[in-house]
Amino acid sequence: MRANRPGNTENISVSMPAELVSELRSRAGRRGLSGYITEAVRHQLAMDGLAEIVAAHEEEQGALTEQEIEAARRELFGEEDARDAGRGAA
User: Fold this and answer.
1) What tens digit of pLDDT does each residue of 64-88 get?
2) Could you tell me if 34 and 14 are in contact, meaning their C-beta atoms sit under 8 angstroms apart?
């Protein structure tokens, strides 16, 4: 285990389409495949958690309003990034 990996790690095997692996290898860079995939999974878990929060809110309170969505964007991304996110910018 490398010193820059805090905590315990576990080796797993993941199957994915060859073209995706090729793209992954070209983008992983110095992070390496494990680092890149770890960050991607962390990001997805965070997005899943946000989706669960929104779903619970909407179940109790009804659909989010545009104002609530914009306020959340500002809170998460700041003013400039919120405007870009609203336009679908990456």
Assistant:
1) 999 999 998 999 888 775 556 555 5
2) no
